[in-house]
Amino acid sequence: MKLPIVAYGDPILRKKTEEIDEDYPNLQQLIADMFETMYAANGVGLAAPQIGLAIRLFVIDASPFSDDDEDGPGDASVKDFKKVIINPIIVEESGEKWAFNEGCLSIPDINEEVLRKPNIVLNYLDENFEEHEVELSGLAARVVQHEYDHIEGKLFIDKISVLKKAMIKGKLDAIAKGRVKVDYKMKFPQASKRKV
C-alpha cells in the first residue's frame, strides 16, 4: 500500500526516533509498504519519520545511482544495494568530505550540494533482526547517511550554508503549506491543523 509522505514542516521530521524490536506490530507489512511508497515516488531511500512514524527504520534501494557511482570516491557498487535497516548506528565516518547534489521526498523540487564524508562503518539489524556491521563508501554511504539523518531528526538542508537556506526559504514555506505539485501522495502539516 502506498503511504503518504510527510512534507517539510511536520514536527515528526525533527524528532529523534525510538528503537524497535521483533514484536513491532505488522513490521513486515510496514517494510513492504515503505518500499512500495518509495518506488512510487521514484526515491532511493525512505525513513520511517517520512511516513509519520518515529522509529529507527529505513529502506534503501540505491540501484538508480548505479550509473553515477564513479562520480563519488570509493569503489562501492550501488547496483544491488537494497536494504532494510533497523536500529542503525553509524560507528565511524572517515575520509575527506565530498559534495553531491541531494534531494528528499519530503522536500520536493529542492536539490542542493551537500558535503559528507565518503566512508562509513554501519551497524544495523535487517528485517529478520540479524545484526550486520558493514563498511560502505561513495554513494552507498551517502544514501545511508541521508536516511540516518532522518531518524536523528535532521534534514539535508541542515547541512547547507545559511545563505543557500535563505535563498530557498520561500520554497520551503510553500512546501509546508502544501503549495507544491508532486506525482505522489503527501501529507502536509497545514492540512492536519485544519482538521480541528
Q: Helical segment tally?
A: 5
Average pLDDT confidence is: 91
Number of domains: 1
What share of residues are in beta strands? 25-35%
Explain what the structure shows.
By secondary structure, this protein is of the alpha+beta class. The protein has a single domain (5-190), classed as Peptide deformylase (Peptide Deformylase, Alpha-Beta Complex), CATH 3.90.45.10. The protein is 24% helix and 29% strand. The protein is built from 5 helices and 9 strands; from the N terminus they run E-H-E-E-E-E-E-E-E-H-H-H-E-H. It has a 5-stranded antiparallel β-sheet, with helices on both faces. A hairpin with a 5-residue loop joins strand 7 and strand 8 (131-137). The chain is globular and about 45 Å long.
Keywords:
single chain; 196 residues; alpha+beta; Peptide Deformylase; 5-stranded antiparallel sheet; two-stranded parallel ribbon; 5 helices; globular; iron; protein biosynthesis; metal ion binding; EC 3.5.1.88
In short:
With 196 residues, the chain is α+β, with helices and mostly antiparallel strands. The protein contains five helices and nine strands; from the N terminus they run βαβββββββαααβα.
What topology does this entry show?
Elements: E1 5-6, H1 27-40, E2 45-47, E3 57-61, E4 82-94, E5 98-104, E6 107-116, E7 119-125, E8 131-137, H2 138-151, H3 162-167, H4 169-176, E9 186-187, H5 189-194
Parallel strand pairs: 1-9
Antiparallel strand pairs: 2-3, 3-4, 4-7, 5-6, 7-8
